[in-house]
Specification:
Length: 49
């Protein structure tokens, strides 16, 4: 949210762009799910070597 400018922390003040919060959370969830799915699809190390 910080990288997208939805959440800002300046001069000890936290500011949220409330109109963008919902979409930002949806985007974060999508990114987390993609990372999770790509981890499942990766092959595991062969420890039997």
């Amino acid at each position: 949210m910080h990288k997208n400018g939805v959440l800002r922390w300046t001069d000890n003040k936290l500011t949220l762009s409330w109109s963008e919060v919902t979409q930002s959370i949806v985007d974060l969830c999508d990114k987390a799910e993609n990372l999770y799915r790509s981890g499942i699809d990766r092959s595991r190390f062969d420890l039997a070597r």
